[in-house]
């Protein structure tokens, strides 16, 4: 989080001691407009929710209400996909009789693995060479479409565990439209791991719902996920927010309260226009909004292309150093983070050191857990995720930081064996 964002937070928190001074002052609309610029969409199509899991749950709820998923149809996700974009689909499948299908993570080609690729991240991303995830997804789509309808594809832009990807979202929509022949598949995207570094054009790429938590690469605080909702979902009469509340009702702007109507009895149920219909319950958070507005302004000022250009050499330095050690890195990975996994010798060492012997996947997880703990003791903070070390250089890092990480990783491997 930027220091300027932190300062806005302190100022906003202090206002709570004089709540009569608090007013929205258009900050929420400013956040919608700034996020709209980032995803190339109208501010009218941006909703405010407390988390990406909330946003995805709301999308799933309305997809089911609209009759867009039925018994026997398929919802596609990726293996090891972030749970916030999986749990809601598990529930929808239980309720509807649809079937959840996970596309297995592509197995790396050994030669390609020794030559990790640094991603292009400019606006021509949609025309770049396809990643292994693109090929795996298209194969799964074409296979399953032979026997049933694919109702939903819910995916990230990059896999959160190891940075593998990207998924070419623009082409994915084209493939779905071609294969489903007029039976539109709903495309739901969790962009939390990349938006702010890698450009996304939500509207022109045919995305139906896109959610992004602001605490990652939007440099903001915890507690807010910004959501793009394609206009047809706001205009659909059967869609609704998952929390019944006054603030997203027509006429209830700011501190204006709707009158109680004895003839109803109750309050007017007409929704505000556009994606405000899907705002979470409660008034707009007067602490978060100024912080998020400040953060989004900085992201737009720096611009995602420039942020990725800054981070890509550091990530490539990580990948090249790990590859020289014989460790595994994805052959296609994000410009701003990647996963480093153990090699065969590391895995064999973990298996032999465990009684009774464990599986290869559990051995990889044990290795990554031990490596992350060792890094932390050396003042280097990386995460253990699904059997790999997730390494995410940030804009404050220098090449010397990467050198320190690689040196510590080499020392860990020697000592751990």
Determine the structural class based on helices, strands and strand pairing: alpha/beta
- CATH superfamily of the largest domain, by name, is Type I PLP-dependent aspartate aminotransferase-like (Major domain)
**Proportion of beta-strand residues:** 5-15%
Order of SSEs? HHEHEHEHHEHEEEHHHEHHEEH
Assign a percent range to the helix content: 25-40%
Question: What count of structural domains?
Answer: 2
Task: Report the span from N to C terminus.
Answer: 37 Å
* Adjacency order of strands in the biggest sheet: 1-7-6-5-4-2-3
Briefly note the CATH topology name of the largest domain: Aspartate Aminotransferase, domain 2
Sheet with most strands: 7 strands, mixed
What Rg, in angstroms, do the CA atoms define? 23 Å
CATH architecture of the largest domain: 3-Layer(aba) Sandwich
Textual characterization of the structure:
InterPro entries: Aminotrans_V_dom (IPR000192), PyrdxlP-dep_Trfase (IPR015424), PyrdxlP-dep_Trfase_major (IPR015421), PyrdxlP-dep_Trfase_small (IPR015422). This is Csd protein. Residues 28-104, 181-233 form the Aminotransferase class V domain. By secondary structure, the chain is an alpha/beta fold. It has 2 domains: 3-302, Aspartate Aminotransferase, domain 2; 304-416, Aspartate Aminotransferase, domain 1, CATH 3.90.1150. The chain has helices spanning 3-15, 27-39, 52-65, 87-96, 110-113, 132-145, 169-180, 231-235, 288-302, 304-324, 344-352, 360-377, 399-416; strands at residues 46-49, 74-78, 99-103, 150-156, 186-190, 209-213, 225-229, 338-340, 383-385, 388-391. The strands form 2 sheets. The protein has a 7-stranded mixed sheet, with helices on both faces. It has a 3-stranded antiparallel sheet with strand order 8-10-9, with helices on one face. α4 (87-96) links the parallel β2 (74-78) and β3 (99-103). α10 (304-324) runs parallel beside α13 and α11 packs across α12. The longest helix is centred in the C-terminal third of the chain and has 21 residues, at 304-324. It is globular. 44% of the residues are buried. Residues 110-114 and 121-126 have low confidence and may be disordered.
């Amino acid at each position: 989080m930027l220091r300027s964002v932190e300062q806005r937070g302190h100022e906003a928190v202090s206002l709570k001691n004089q709540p009569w001074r608090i007013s929205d002052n258009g900050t929420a609309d400013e956040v919608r407009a700034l996020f709209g610029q980032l995803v190339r969409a109208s501010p009218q199509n941006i909703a405010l929710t407390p988390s990406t899991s909330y946003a995805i749950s709301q999308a799933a709820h309305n997809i089911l209400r609209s009759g867009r998923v039925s018994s026997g149809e398929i919802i596609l996700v990726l293996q090891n996909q972030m749970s916030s974009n999986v749990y809601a689909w598990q529930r929808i499948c239980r309720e509807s009789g649809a079937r959840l299908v996970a596309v297995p993570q592509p197995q790396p080609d050994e030669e390609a693995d020794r030559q990790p690729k640094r991603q292009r991240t400019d606006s021509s991303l949609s025309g770049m060479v396809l990643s292994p995830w693109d090929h795996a997804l298209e194969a799964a789509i074409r296979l399953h479409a032979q026997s049933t309808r694919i109702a939903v594809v819910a995916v990230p832009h990059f896999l959160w565990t190891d940075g593998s990807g990207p998924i070419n979202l623009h082409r994915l929509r084209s493939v779905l439209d071609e294969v489903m022949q007029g039976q539109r598949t709903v495309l739901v995207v969790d962009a939390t791991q990349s938006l702010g570094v890698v450009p996304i054009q939500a509207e022109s790429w045919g995305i139906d719902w896109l959610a992004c938590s602001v605490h990652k690469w939007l440099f903001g605080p915890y507690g807010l996920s910004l959501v793009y909702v394609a206009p047809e979902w706001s205009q659909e009469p059967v869609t609704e927010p998952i929390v019944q509340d006054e603030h997203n009702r027509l006429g209830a702007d700011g501190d204006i309260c709707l009158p109680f109507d004895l003839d109803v009895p109750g309050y007017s149920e007409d929704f505000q226009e556009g994606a405000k219909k899907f705002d979470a319950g409660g008034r707009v958070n007067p602490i978060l909004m100024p912080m998020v507005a400040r953060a989004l302004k900085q992201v737009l000022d720096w611009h995602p292309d420039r942020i990725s250009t800054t981070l890509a050499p550091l990530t490539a330095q990580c990948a090249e150093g790990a590859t020289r050690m014989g460790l595994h890195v994805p052959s296609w990975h994000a410009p701003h983070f990647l996963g480093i996994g153990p090699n065969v010798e590391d895995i064999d060492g973990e298996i032999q050191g465990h009684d009774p012997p464990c599986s290869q996947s559990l051995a990889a997880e044990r290795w990554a857990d031990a490596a992350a703990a060792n890094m932390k003791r050396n003042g280097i903070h990386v995460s253990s995720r699904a059997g790999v070390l997730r390494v995410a250089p940030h804009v404050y890092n220098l090449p010397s930081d990467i050198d320190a990480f690689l040196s510590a990783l080499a020392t860990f491997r020697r000592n751990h064996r």
